[in-house]
């Protein structure tokens, strides 16, 4: 297990990251052309009405004042209220976060569940037909756009075979897992391809290591050698890859969320950016930064547990 | 002056006829699932500003008068009738007996006055222009409301059918948390209460909204029992077109809106589905900046009437309709749609005529052409398609069109700041009167004629006169003249297009009226 000192150090490292995100998001959203009012206002809004609304939302205040108000609110846990849908940002995020978290968890399970056996199968049969087939499969799944995989799965397994619903989310946990299965496969297959390629290379490298030969020479069963020595060591670099990939899934599954009609935060983020909904973009980015930092933290801690040298 | 009225006994659009139900046994019950391209944003009738709200609001909130299904007339609502005074300076409305909000509390004259006063407050939202003529809302007795007008207003009656004039429960609204009316509106709109055919049940943002039957709704169905026929409606949010349609095709949805035009023929051929193209007031056009100088100080050829005419003649509307709408659109014959009252004209405003376009360019001194740019919504298949088609068509008269793809907020910020040469846009009416589109398209003081800078004193004077003209024949003539003047207006009129909705074969009586409202009150799911 990593030492307490390492854990504390790693957690403290998150603080400047989050502060940086807070400042940068605030500035960046305001650098985009237009503002929330220009996004809402179509043809039918007069200049006087825009000015009136801008004042009502405090957007006519100096930038520094707006920033200080924002920081003061964030410090008290208040992420503000959406300008476009008028609901509190906290409510929007708590409504939209569970589908994304669940989709991410299921995708990672499917991704890892596929990647580990396939990587072994491929590495242990290196250069043979099975290896080529698995690598070709990974290449194909990486080359296909996510929306295409999603639509094919929907058309075949939902619309035609009726094994799964055509998108949506569901009302209880069982139904949600059922609804999220196809989108999780869509994302999991791409994730598996990335992880598998990396893990396969790591396994091949580890298989050639002296300690593996030694373990075999000791007469350990192949299964034990593969799981305890090969997998454990090969996973270290793959885990390093998993952290950022999970981070990308948390914030970037927009296309999958749209194709499968999942009310997740990817879609909320895109809608908020198009709507220049400053409070939502800011609040969501902050929460996502926190989640991604946590994903990195968890993978770092697992890595440190597997390889104590990491924590030094 | 003529007294406009309809008494209780008059044969208004009879409800049964409106919803096109066959005589005989009426099917009741069931929950209809309907796929929408986007979720609602803010369910407040006064402060909303998006079609995703407007088009479903009438299911939750009722108005004193209702639009007819053709979108051109009015029929009774919470009021059984109205009388306009001979001098046109007041409207008396009679409230229906026994009307209630969906929580069972009675709708009183006080609720009506409070709702209309809020709707017409210039500080509240963007729709108060509809009620601009109202000087005061007076309660004559518990059943009688008198609108005292500042000027005769031919559009006030259709105005009372518009969502912003929905009647809301004053006491319930005032009881919710919030320091100001606007704050209260934000809270109230999370769990709205009205008196429409359905009442709010639940809302998971970005996913689904559930409405259930309002047991207190006043309108009677074909079977003599109160509407609606359905037990409820579930709106599912399905932003991806392909998924939304797959869900209808697989039977998981009873209907879906905004079918891409490219899929209309395929769905028409599906025996299990009913592909409907509801007539609409939607017009699609290009707006040209007609100011003599552009934002960057350069001379603007588009300020020349002849150049704009040349661009219009060089734009082959039929080809654009074929490319973009797959043939379901029709060329615009005026700046307003044929479904808008007082529309005049037939056939394309500028039938394609390349020779004429070239001659006009020569007359205008631009024989060698020029270059200008258009704003197009990035990723929007229709806008990019139109821009690309125009680019090729105008190349034939020497004009080079540069396509500048931007997102919505950027586009709006730029055209509102007059920082554009051309932009593409669409419009649908919200009121069964031509005054809304005219105020925004051609009457300079509203928004400088679609932010184009086009200013025509004759047009402005005619519009101002028409706003207080109660004589229909005179007002029709004024509108005919405005439409004629607008031939030299700031737009390239492209096409009108219907609302493409796909329904399962067993869905009866659903209507999307030309103003866009989705009417589920007379909808039933046949067994």
Provide mean pLDDT of chain A, rounded.
87
Here the CATH topology of the domain at 96-264 in chain A equals MetI-like fold
Q: What number of domains of chain B?
A: 2
What value does the Rg of chain B take, in angstroms?
A: 24 Å
What best-fitting shape of chain B do the alpha-carbon axes yield? globular
CATH class of the domain at 96-264 in chain A: Mainly Alpha
Point out poorly predicted stretches of chain A: none
Q: What would your notes on this structure say?
A:
Helix content of chain A is 77%, strand content 0%. Chain A is built from 13 helices and no strands. Chain A has a domain of 169 residues: MetI-like fold (Orthogonal Bundle), CATH 1.10.3720. The mean pLDDT of chain A is 87. In chain B, the strands form 6 sheets. Chain B has a 7-stranded mixed sheet. In chain B, strands 14-18-13-17-15-16 form a 6-stranded mixed sheet. Chain B has a 4-stranded antiparallel sheet with strand order 4-5-7-6, covered by helices on one side. The longest helix of chain B has 15 residues. The N and C termini of chain B lie far apart (52 Å). In chain B, 53% of the residues are buried.
Task: Summarize this structure as a short list of keywords or feature phrases.
heterodimer; A: 312 residues; mainly alpha; MetI-like fold; B: 527 residues; alpha+beta; Dipeptide-binding Protein, domain 1; Dipeptide-binding Protein, domain 3; 2 domains; seven-stranded mixed β-sheet; six-stranded mixed β-sheet; 17 helices; 23 strands; globular; disordered N terminus
């Amino acid at each position: 297990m990593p030492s307490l000192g390492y854990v504390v150090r790693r957690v403290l490292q998150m603080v400047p990251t989050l502060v940086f995100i807070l400042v940068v998001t605030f500035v960046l959203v305001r650098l985009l052309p237009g503002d929330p009012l220009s996004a809402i206002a179509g043809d039918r809004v007069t200049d006087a009405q825009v000015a009136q609304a801008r004042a009502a939302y405090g957007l006519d205040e100096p930038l520094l004042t707006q920033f200080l108000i924002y920081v003061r609110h964030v410090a008290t846990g208040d992420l503000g209220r959406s300008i476009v849908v008028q609901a509190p940002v906290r409510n929007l995020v708590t409504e939209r976060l569970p589908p994304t978290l669940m989709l991410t968890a299921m995708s990672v399970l499917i991704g890892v569940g596929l990647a580990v056996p396939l990587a072994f199968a491929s590495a242990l049969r290196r250069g043979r037909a099975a290896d080529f087939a698995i690598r070709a499969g990974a290449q194909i799944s990486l080359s296909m756009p996510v929306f295409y995989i999603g639509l094919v799965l929907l058309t075949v397994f939902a619309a035609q075979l009726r094994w799964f619903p055509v998108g949506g989310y569901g009302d209880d946990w069982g139904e949600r897992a059922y609804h999220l299965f196809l989108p999780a496969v869509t994302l999991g297959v791409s994730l598996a391809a990335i992880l598998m390629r990396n893990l396969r290379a790591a396994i091949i490298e580890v298989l050639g290591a002296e300690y593996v030969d030694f373990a075999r020479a000791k007469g350990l069963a192949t299964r034990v050698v593969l799981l305890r020595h090969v997998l454990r060591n090969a996973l270290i670099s793959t885990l390093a890859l998993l952290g950022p990939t999970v981070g990308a899934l948390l914030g970037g599954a927009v296309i999958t969320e749209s194709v499968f009609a999942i009310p997740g935060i990817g879609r909320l983020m895109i809608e908020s950016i198009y709507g220049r909904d400053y409070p939502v973009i800011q609040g969501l980015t902050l929460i996502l930064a926190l989640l991604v930092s946590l994903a990195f933290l968890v993978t770092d801690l697992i890595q440190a547990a597997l390889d104590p040298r990491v924590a030094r | 002056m003529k007294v406009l009225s309809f008494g209780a006994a008059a044969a208004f659009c009879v409800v049964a006829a409106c919803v096109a139900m066959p005589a005989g046994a009426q099917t009741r019950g069931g929950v209809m699932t309907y796929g929408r391209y986007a979720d609602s944003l803010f369910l407040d009738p006064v402060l909303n500003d998006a079609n995703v709200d407007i088009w479903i609001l009438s299911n939750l909130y009722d108005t004193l008068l209702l639009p007819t299904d053709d979108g051109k007339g009015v029929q009774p609502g919470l009021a059984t009738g109205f009388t306009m005074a001979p001098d046109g300076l007041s409207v008396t409305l009679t409230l229906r007996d026994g009307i209630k909000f969906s929580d069972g509390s009675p709708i009183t004259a006080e609720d009506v006055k409070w709702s209309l006063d809020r709707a017409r407050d210039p500080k509240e939202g963007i729709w108060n222009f509809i009620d601009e003529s109202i000087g005061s809302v007076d309660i004559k007795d518990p059943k009688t409301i008198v609108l005292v007008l500042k000027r005769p207003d031919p559009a006030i009656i259709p105005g009372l059918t518009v969502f912003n004039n929905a009647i809301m429960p004053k006491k319930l609204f005032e009881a919710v948390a919030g320091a100001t009316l606007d704050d209260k509106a934000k809270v109230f709109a999370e769990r709205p209460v009205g008196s429409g055919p359905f009442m709010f049940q639940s809302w998971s943002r970005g996913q689904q909204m559930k409405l259930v039957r309002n047991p207190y709704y006043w309108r009677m169905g074909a079977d003599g029992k109160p509407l609606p026929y359905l037990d409820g409606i579930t709106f599912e949010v399905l932003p991806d077109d392909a998924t939304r349609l797959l869900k209808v095709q697989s039977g998981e949805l009873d209907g879906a809106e905004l079918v891409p035009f490219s899929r209309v023929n395929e769905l028409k051929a599906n025996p299990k589905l009913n592909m409907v193209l509801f007539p609409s007031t939607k017009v699609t056009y290009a707006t040209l900046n007609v100011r003599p100088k552009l934002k960057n100080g350069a001379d603007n050829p588009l300020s020349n009437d002849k150049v704009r005419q040349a661009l219009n003649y060089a734009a082959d509307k039929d080809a654009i309709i074929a490319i973009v709408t797959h043939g379901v659109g029709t060329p615009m014959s005026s700046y307003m749609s044929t479904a808008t009252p007082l529309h005049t004209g037939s056939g394309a405003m500028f039938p394609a005529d390349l020779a004429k376009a070239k001659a006009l360019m020569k007359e205008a001194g631009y024989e060698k052409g020029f270059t200008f740019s258009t704003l197009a919504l990035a990723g929007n298949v229709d806008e990019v398609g139109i821009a690309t088609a125009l680019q090729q068509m105008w190349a034939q008269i020497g004009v080079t069109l540069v396509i500048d793809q931007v997102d919505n907020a950027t586009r709006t910020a730029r055209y509102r700041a007059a920082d554009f040469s051309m932009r593409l846009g669409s419009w649908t009416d919200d009121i069964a009167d031509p005054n809304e589109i005219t105020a925004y398209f051609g009457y300079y003081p509203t928004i400088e004629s679609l932010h184009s800078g086009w200013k025509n004193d004759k047009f402005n004077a005619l519009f101002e006169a028409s706003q207080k003209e109660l004589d229909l024949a005179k007002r029709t003539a004024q509108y005919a003249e405005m439409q004629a003047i607008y031939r030299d207006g700031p737009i390239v009129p492209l096409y009108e297009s219907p609302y493409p909705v796909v329904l399962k074969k067993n869905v009866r009586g659903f209507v999307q009226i030309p103003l866009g409202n989705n009417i589920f009150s007379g909808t039933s799911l046949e067994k």
